[in-house]
Design brief:
single chain, 418 residues, alpha/beta, Beta Polymerase, domain 2, Rossmann fold, six-stranded parallel beta sheet, four-stranded antiparallel beta sheet
């Protein structure tokens, strides 16, 4: 048996190539059945995300070319067109790669945790499709524990490296708990969507989404349990907002100093944390001069993100040491497992020789043969069959004067002292 992985990711292939070999969740069960129909494949798992498509297999022989042919045929693409973007690993390097992936060390955003959940989904799909057994089960379970250890023992996931996450983290530093606070989010694009989901994960008390298109704001609001309003009501909404995060495509500021001063009076000068993620800016710079206003621009957060990224890079070095240690441990388990299989095969072969000889001896006894003679023939037949291959190997070793092999073969047939 041998471990094999084959795939592409954001480092080796552009998005227009990655999307051609992506597997939709509804396709996964059928794809796994097709993989399992390849004779050399014992077990298989398919991992497919927006940034990677990878196939993990336990195989009885090298079938990488067959898997490549299957992958391209399944998606109806040219094999030569995909080949330059493919990477391949075998045996312990499969474990090393998967452990790095699970730990976020191979992600577009270093240390991001989402990939671990995606790996667990792929593992569950393989279990549901009966394409996983002892080898890949152990490999993936080990990868999950490695990822947990990396998260626990290093700082790789503790520092935000996206402006959306950094904005929410900064609000927690200022206010502590967010569960009694109200957030006003201005815009309804991708950045605000990320901000809203991060706020929800931090158990924000309530949210309002203001956008030029109320319909678009309502779609996002329905997903996260927020209110949706027209963007021109922002000055009125401001008085209820403890947190304001804005990211629109407006060419003119949406919030000015006057409207903010008015809101502060209504709030009796309770502080407002503001983050302007827009370029050009949505919030006038003068707003930041007001007492009780904490205003951060996208450049302020970029500095935080850059510092945090450097922190993650340092943490990644410690994480790699953990991965390397865990790879060695998995490799030791795999070799032990494989040796057990080889021993089992050897014993099965010996048992077959024994059974065939016994059946032959019993037949001779039924034909009124002398019992002593039948036993002698039984012993001779078992000895001859068990010694046939070692005898041939001994002759080769003697011809080649291979003393190490000669001693090994002699030790195999030397009777125990007892």
């Amino acid at each position: 048996m041998a471990l094999l992985s084959l795939g592409i990711n954001h480092l080796t292939a552009p998005v227009d190539i990655r999307e051609k070999v992506a597997f939709a969740p509804g396709q996964m069960r059928h794809a796994l059945h097709e993989l399992q129909d390849i004779p050399a494949i014992n077990e298989s798992v398919i991992v497919s995300t927006c940034n990677r498509t990878e196939i993990y297999c336990d195989t009885s022989s090298d079938c990488s070319d067959t898997i490549m042919h299957w992958l391209t045929a399944h998606h109806g693409i040219n094999e030569n067109g995909l080949a330059p973007f493919i990477y391949q690993h075998s045996d312990r390097e499969v474990a090393r790669h998967l452990f790095r992936v699970a730990s976020g060390l191979d992600s577009m955003v270093l240390g991001e945790p989402q990939i671990l959940g995606q790996l667990k989904e792929s593992y569950d799909q393989a279990r549901g499709g009966n394409s996983i057994n002892s080898i890949l089960d152990r490999l993936f379970q080990h990868s999950f524990s490695v990822a947990k250890r990396v998260r626990t023992d290093t700082e790789i996931g503790s520092n935000p490296v996206s402006v959306a996450f950094a904005a929410v983290s900064l609000s927690k530093q200022i206010f502590g708990k967010l569960n009694e606070l109200h957030a006003l989010l201005i815009g309804a694009g991708e950045t605000i969507e990320l901000v809203s989901r991060h706020l929800k994960s931090q158990q924000i008390g309530s949210m309002t989404i203001a956008n030029r298109s109320v319909e678009r704001a309502q779609i996002l609001a329905d997903q996260i349990g927020a209110d949706a309003v027209q963007i021109n009501t922002v000055p009125e909404q401001l008085a209820q907002a403890d947190i304001v995060i804005s990211s629109t495509a407006s060419q003119l500021p949406i919030l000015g100093k006057g409207a903010t001063e008015s809101a502060l009076k209504k709030r009796k000068h309770r502080p407002i944390f503001m983050v302007d993620l827009a370029v050009p800016r949505d919030i006038e710079a003068e707003v930041g001069t007001l007492q009780d206003i904490y205003l951060y621009s996208v450049d302020d957060l970029k500095t935080v993100v850059d510092e945090n990224l450097r922190g993650r890079e340092l943490a990644a070095e410690a994480a790699l040491e953990i991965v390397n240690l865990e790879v060695t441990m998995f490799d030791q388990w795999l070799k032990t497992h494989q040796s057990a299989d080889h021993i089992r095969q050897m014993r099965d072969s010996a048992d077959l020789i024994k059974q065939q000889a016994i059946e032959k001896a019993l037949l001779q006894l039924k034909q009124a043969s002398d019992p002593e003679e039948a036993i002698q023939r039984l012993a001779n037949e078992i000895t001859n069959k068990l010694m046939h291959r070692p005898t041939l190997e001994m002759r080769k070793a003697l011809q080649n004067e291979d003393e190490e092999r000669i001693e090994l073969l002699k030790s195999l047939i030397t009777p125990d002292s007892q």
